[in-house]
Design a protein that fits this description.
NUDIX_hydrolase-like_dom_sf, HhH_motif, elongated, single chain, binds iron/sulfur cluster, alpha+beta, iron, 4 iron, 4 sulfur cluster binding, 2 domains
């Protein structure tokens, strides 16, 4: 559908969305506040995590780091620890840096302008729009996958959401229906996108805008949104050695910018005199965004105390045990391996 051919009067759709939101907004802890710090943390936490999966993490995080200052002054490893279980740990590293940015560049006061919020480490246009509209009355639509889906179905619009101009295009489309209260509108669209206009089997009968929805009226919902480009996932093989002795095992913190930055991992090599201690191996498949990992973990039970001590001294590994490992953040497959290793 060509945008220019549409009537400019779509504002009643925004009103219906707001009306629906008044009665149906999800009762979430971060909905009771306009504190930009909390809204920002919640937007980052729930970017790649479902609400019911991330809610406890969010509550624990806010309890430990109730404000920008506390977060900025914390050790990075502790921030990572409180992120444990949420995955995509670069988000935790970025919010920690952004908190320090707010302390240094904004005297500890959360910036209230969209352009300034956008300067914070790890904050994209979506998050900046959400925080500025919910907390400061900003007038930017918080366009994400939910917006793409709802708007492309609403207008039966075949603009390709994998196109690099999709954000701008759907922001303009959102502006056609956007009411005065953009903060509530953005939150309503988040709720409609995740609870009603779901990717599969949308609940059109319960949708507040079903009378206006073109895809619904022509029964072509599954044709929208249009996405042509599929990013091919890269295959990647990793090898680790679970080197242990008397209930203790060896770890180190990753430095690489590649994947799992700053998380802890097992050694990725052993010395030749340790090969006789290998008792078996296990291969684990794990998917990351755009990567299919195949992780082979060798179990190395070191019988010799001298070889154990020499290996640690030469490679500066940390010694831990299962209890100690709870205080550190590991990539999910290694975390699972540690838990299972104890059951054997
Ligand atoms: S009517 Fe159905 S397809 Fe259209 S916006 Fe509502 S839920 Fe989505």
């Amino acid at each position: 559908m060509e945008k220019d051919n549409r009537s400019s009067d779509f504002l009643h759709i925004g009103s219906k969305i707001l009306e629906w939101y008044k009665n149906n907004a999800r009762d979430l802890p971060f909905r009771q506040t306009k504190d930009p710090y909390k809204i920002w943390i919640c937007e980052i936490v729930f970017q790649q995590t479902r609400i019911n999966q991330g809610l406890n993490h969010y509550n624990n995080f806010i309890k430990r780091f109730p404000d920008v200052k506390t977060l900025a002054e914390a050790e990075e490893n502790e921030v990572l620890l409180y992120w444990k279980g949420l995955g995509y740990y670069s988000r935790a590293i970025n919010i920690h840096k952004a908190a320090q940015q707010i302390m240094n560049d904004y005297h500890g006061i959360f910036p209230d302008q969209y352009e300034e919020i956008l300067k914070l480490k790890g904050v994209g246009k979506y998050t900046a729009a959400a925080v500025s509209s919910i907390c400061f009355g900003g007038r930017m639509p918080a366009v994400d996958g939910n917006f793409y889906r709802v708007l492309s179905r609403l207008f039966a619009d075949d603009f390709d959401i994998s196109n690099s101009k999709a954000f701008t295009y759907f922001s303009e489309l959102a502006a056609l229906v956007m009411p005065e209260n953009v903060g509530d509108f953005n939150q309503a669209m988040m709720d409609i996108g995740s609870e009603i206009c779901k990717p599969k089997n949308p609940l059109c009968g319960e949708c507040p805008i079903n009378e206006d929805c073109l895809a619904f009226s022509i029964q072509k919902i599954s044709d929208y949104p249009v996405k042509t480009k599929k990013v091919k996932a890269e295959d990647l093989a990793l090898t680790y050695y679970f080197v242990h002795r008397n209930g203790q095992f060896l770890i180190r913190q990753r430095k690489e910018d590649f994947i799992w930055k700053k998380l802890f991992e097992f050694p990725d090599a052993i010395s030749s005199n340790m090969e006789t201690f290998i008792t078996g191996s296990k291969t684990i498949a794990h998917k990351l965004t755009h990567k299919n990992l195949s992780i082979e973990i060798f179990n190395v039970e070191v019988i010799s105390e001298k070889i154990w001590n020499d290996f640690i001294a030469e490679n500066q590994y940390l010694i831990t045990d299962v209890e100690g490992s709870h205080e550190k953040s590991f990539p999910k497959p290694l975390e699972n391996y540690i838990q299972n290793s104890l059951k054997d």
